Amino acid sequence: MASLLARIARFAFRRRRLVVALWLLAATVAIACMAVFGGASKINQTFTVPGSQSQQALDRMKQAFPASSGTNAQIVFTLPAGQSVTTAAAERSITSVLAAAAKAPEVAQVLSPSQTGAVSPQRTAAIAEVEYQVSGASLSTSTLDALKSAVQSAPHGNLQVQVGGPAFNNGAANPGAEDLVGVLVAVIVLAITFGSLVAAGLPLLSALFGVVIAVAAVLSLTGAVDISSTALTLSLMIGLAVGIDYALFIVTRHRSQLARGMAAQEAAATAAGTAGSAVLFAGLTVVIAMAGLSVVGIPFLTVMGLCAAGAVFIAVAVALTLLPAFLGFAGTRLTPKPGSRTARREAAITDTAAASGPVNGAERWTRIAIRRPLATVLIVVAALAGLAWPAHSMSLGLPDNATAPSGSSQRAAYQEVTADFGPGFNGPLLVLADTSHSSAPAAAAQQIAGSLKALPDVAAVTAPRLSADGKAALIQLVPKSAPSDQATKDLVTGIRDQAGALEHGTGATIAVTGTTAVGIDVSSKLGSAIVPFAIVVVGLSLVLLLLVFRSLVVPVKAALGFLLSVGASFGVVVALFQQGHLAKLIGVDATGPVTSFLPIILMAVLFGLAMDYEVFLVSRMREDYVHHGSPIGAVHAGARTAGRVVTAAALIMFSVFASFVTSDNMILKQLACALAVGVLIDAFAVRMTLVPAVLALTGRAAWWLPRWMDRALPNLDIEGTSLEQDCAMQSADPHGTHQEPAGASTR
């Protein structure tokens, strides 16, 4: 593998103009496809589970109740205490507003408060419904903005009018200018790490090149596939983060080889064969983990995983082909100046003897960690277990308008409805009754409505609406609890449990649907998939690391460290977003459930990133152990050579993820926060602290593998030991091997 990557890098270095031209062509094609076949206007926020009871009922409603088969918005009218919405003047204002709403784009019908029956007991508030024939995911932001504009511009006297409801639950997770903060931090970290603006610019340039292609490719598919804005932003976020990190690893190794006197072309080849092998391995693990989301069987999660996997695949391809071409253009300009801080550091790194003393902060930290390795292990495990503790009460759901941006119309509407009617009116359930086999369909529907009203936690049940052919009835049921409460989930389960008895008594079958029920079904499906997916991911990490390091201790230690990182990340997210601890520090002023697909996405992404840091750090340790045979010396050498780069990579990735925490979209905010915390914990608490302590504690046993297994496993040569002979052969060939690009100068 190392030799193959080195040969690819040599070709890209020599034929750099051709390679850059091919990548520019690829970018042009991707952008052209985006312009012709897709675009940002076609992204949506589809969160459904095909085959679930709620989705099947929605599909049937398209035939029986087309006007009610889509999502709906709420128009909330309020007056101060002592005034009534039922006066003639108030009703004229309400009629004026509803007439304007009926003319808004894509509106199927508008139901007045007299039709919905939603007038508060004090007569100070009323709710009208605006029904659409399409799902909330299919409504664009401009459509909802047009509704708000129409409502607010209509004469409404002294009525306070707010627009909200389920149609606004699927706010797009659109990147903003504030997300560039992560890029700026990355530039600063790269400049400090390399001490050269040219060297710092190469990882950023290659990463941005890959992100442009990835985002354009995702957007080009929006015309044929339902792609959520969350999937697009996740691809952008992960593609940018790993793109910078992967290039950082390779450029760092390239400059290290230049500092030791190696020719630029061979330095690029060696960097691609060593650090590039780690990049290829780590990138493929992320791709496999993200693509593995398809096994859960939920289309929107499959699309999300494949989009992110595609972005990572492009980042790996750019790092292994386009980056060596950029290195060819840079030539020897990347060589550290004699006597510079970078040159002295590289000279010190060359001395891998453990007795050489600490040469950088990473090794000094490692020396502290392994001074009392058992104590370090216990402290880190206890600390991460403490952070993970809140995760035991994690509640999964899809964020609703209760956590919408403060001051927004939908947040104000949610609060008004809760105050005047009760929280359940923000997420009513729809019960679809199939009365085609009932002898008296109307009477059967009335009997079902009466039975539902007797259930606990039911605030109200509307009169059944019969379909045009009389074979179906639609009943709206309002819970007493909020849409995201456990009591509402229990109510949905209770209604479904009553289905058999109701069918026996009326001859009609029922199904629970609506936005709230769909969200509950999505969360239930994803919640049941967490443990199986975790088993697959951990098992995959054990197999992959066994192949790479040919050790039993290293894979087990890495898998357990990954579980600690994931658990701690879950705990922090629950503490912030669900329990509200220190939530205002990140702009969260209302608590709610953890996004239902966050745990699986976090496990998939963090798995790849954890393997990334593990391979880059531990491979340098194993490389030193193979050459010198000292377990403790290998830990020191690995920290000295790779610790600084892992630290820089983690800080860059953390800053990229953290910059998205400023988003108003709660899904993106939670996801970005979880990834940022996960990277920080995994890189510094696990890889830079726990890993050295465990390796120091186990000594030579850390690198032991039974002989029969050693013979059976393929040799991946992740450290690039086969490159020595390859480099010697290349050095013997004077034709182009040591040729530097024209105009290159020695620093």
Automatic annotation (TrEMBL):
One family name in Pfam for this protein: MMPL
Record key words, sorted: Cell membrane, Membrane, Transmembrane, Transmembrane helix
Domain spans labelled SSD: 180-329, 532-697
The UniProt record lists the keyword Protease: no
Places the protein is found: Cell membrane
Keyword DNA damage: no
Family annotation (PROSITE patterns): PROKAR_LIPOPROTEIN, SSD
TM annotation in the entry: 180-200, 207-225, 231-251, 272-297, 303-327, 374-391, 529-549, 556-577, 597-618, 645-662, 674-697
Highest taxon in the source lineage: Bacteria
Topological relation to the membrane, as annotated: Multi-pass membrane protein
Family: Belongs to the resistance-nodulation-cell division (RND) (TC 2.A.6) family. MmpL subfamily.
The protein's name in its UniProt record: MMPL family transporter
